[in-house]
């Protein structure tokens, strides 16, 4: 990879709104409260002694429990730093060093990490500080509807690039960038990618694909948003039982980032709990700090109580038990995927086209003979009591008809899947 494309001046990427984000004087003070010997008459912290909570015990499914009390509970209940609780932030930095080849020596200097209220908040904050109204942004087509709903009100020119089972097709991206009509739209500064178990298509990029896309982004100087909430939900090919016992998560885009152009979004939602609302963004110090300025005014920080529960759990577990937990989740979703695919084969053979996903929780099915799934899925399927999402929900251009539907295999039981796919089969046949 070409080291000459290293980003030296991040300010050129920052939106007008982002450049106006400045550190909040009060928030900066909060970081100093716990310095040894400091007497605080500064911050507007409420007094913990007035809070009604004495301790918090969380029982774990393994029979043990976590107890939050004393200073740990005080920390959880009080305002805290916008980067997140110090110890949790440290644990997550160590995780990123371990998984993504980030340099432990430069943590907090060249790169940083911020804990957010779910990755959704981090994505939204990053868009706010990097994209101006009317800017162009590149995404996969289809892409995550939750990000589209952040982008649309900003009236961004969302340019969707075609995908295959390995994600965005590099030649299509290169064509779009090489032939950009500068008189019509501003050239994009950001590309939004979901590399693993993509929502909605289930596609997962292999290493070759990641390298090809990274090189194009480097050539055209795009910042990469690597939105990877399904990274830990990789469970391998159909009928590959060897993946039962090994964790092979592969290289991420941030791990190959020699230019400093990747902002990576991780999430606890699929591995600890979605209701905790915890995610974390990792990337170049300049950009994460800008996001932090935004967090200082948006939500101050992610929920202290949620962070404290996650922190207690992760320090109890260490990486060894974290890995064990991930393996059990992967095995769970592998079984689900296997069952779902066998039921698609049973009920929908010849009626749909799809690729069996190797990660995540979605199967993206093209309904043969149907040009637009909107009314079939949004009306007729609901009458028959089957919930699916019509493809159009994931298209930047929502006027375009889509023959696809997204099905999730995460929560339905085998019997429910069987019944749902039977109902879908009769709906397609009636069409
Ligand atoms: N990105 C993608 C691709 C997702 O699928 C989701 C959740 N559905 C999110 C982000 C948001 O996740 P979180 O719960 O961490 O906010």
Automatic annotation (TrEMBL):
Swiss-Prot/TrEMBL keywords: Aminotransferase, Pyridoxal phosphate, Transferase
Pfam families in UniProt: Aminotran_1_2 (PF00155)
Coiled-coil annotated residue ranges, if any: none
Source species, domain of life: Eukaryota
Swiss-Prot/TrEMBL GO biological process terms: alpha-amino acid metabolic process
InterPro entries: Aminotransferase_I/II_large, Class-I_PLP-dep_aminotransf, PyrdxlP-dep_Trfase, PyrdxlP-dep_Trfase_major
Domain Aminotransferase class I/classII large residues, every copy: 73-424
GO terms for MF: 2-aminoadipate transaminase activity; kynurenine-glyoxylate transaminase activity; pyridoxal phosphate binding
Cofactor(s), by name: pyridoxal 5'-phosphate
Gene Ontology terms: cellular component: mitochondrial matrix
Gene3D superfamilies per record: Type I PLP-dependent aspartate aminotransferase-like (Major domain) (3.40.640.10)
Similarity section: Belongs to the class-I pyridoxal-phosphate-dependent aminotransferase family.
PANTHER family named in the record: AMINOTRANSFERASE (PTHR42790), KYNURENINE_ALPHA-AMINOADIPATE AMINOTRANSFERASE, MITOCHONDRIAL (PTHR42790:SF19)
Protein name, as recorded: Aminotransferase class I/classII large domain-containing protein
């Amino acid at each position: 990879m070409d080291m000459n494309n290293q980003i030296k001046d991040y300010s050129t990427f920052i939106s007008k709104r982002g450049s106006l984000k400045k550190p909040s004087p009060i928030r900066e003070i909060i970081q100093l409260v716990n310095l040894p010997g400091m007497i605080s008459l500064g911050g507007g912290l409420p007094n913990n002694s007035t809070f009604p909570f004495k301790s918090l015990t969380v029982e774990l499914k393994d029979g043990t429990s976590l107890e939050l009390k004393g200073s740990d509970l005080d920390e959880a209940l009080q305002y805290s730093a916008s980067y997140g609780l110090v110890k949790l932030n440290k644990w997550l930095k160590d995780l990123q060093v371990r998984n993504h080849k980030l340099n432990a020596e430069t943590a907090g200097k060249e790169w940083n990490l911020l804990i957010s209220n779910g990755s959704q908040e981090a994505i939204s904050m990053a868009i706010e500080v990097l994209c101006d109204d009317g800017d162009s942004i590149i995404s996969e087509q289809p892409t995550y509807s939750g990000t589209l709903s952040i982008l649309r009100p900003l009236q961004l020119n969302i340019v969707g690039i075609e995908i295959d089972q390995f994600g965005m097709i590099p030649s299509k991206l290169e064509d779009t960038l090489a032939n950009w009509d500068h008189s019509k739209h501003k050239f994009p500064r950001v590309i939004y990618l979901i590399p693993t178990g993509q929502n909605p298509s289930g596609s997962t990029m292999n290493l070759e694909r990641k390298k090809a896309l990274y090189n194009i982004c480097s050539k055209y100087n795009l910042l990469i948003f690597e939105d990877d909430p399904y990274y830990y939900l990789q469970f391998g090919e159909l009928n590959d039982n060897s993946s039962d016992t090994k964790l092979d998560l592969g290289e991420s885009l941030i791990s190959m980032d020699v230019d400093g152009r990747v902002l990576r979004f991780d999430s606890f939602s699929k591995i600890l709990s979605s209701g905790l609302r915890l995610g974390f963004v990792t990337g170049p110090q300049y950009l994460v700090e800008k996001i932090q300025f935004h967090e200082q005014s948006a939500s101050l920080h992610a929920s202290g109580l949620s962070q404290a529960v996650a922190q207690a759990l992760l320090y109890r577990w260490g990486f060894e038990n974290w890995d064990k937990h991930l393996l059990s989740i992967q095995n769970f979703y592998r079984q689900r995927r296997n069952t779902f695919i066998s039921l698609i084969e049973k009920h929908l053979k010849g009626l749909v086209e799809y690729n069996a996903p190797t990660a995540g929780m979605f199967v993206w099915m093209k309904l043969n003979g149907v040009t637009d799934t909107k009314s079939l899925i949004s009306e007729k399927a609901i009458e028959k009591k089957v919930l699916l999402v019509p493809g159009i929900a994931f298209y930047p251009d929502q006027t375009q008809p889509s023959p696809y539907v997204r099905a999730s295999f995460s929560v339905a039981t085998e019997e429910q899947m069987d019944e749902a796919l039977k109902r879908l089969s009769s709906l397609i046949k009636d069409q």
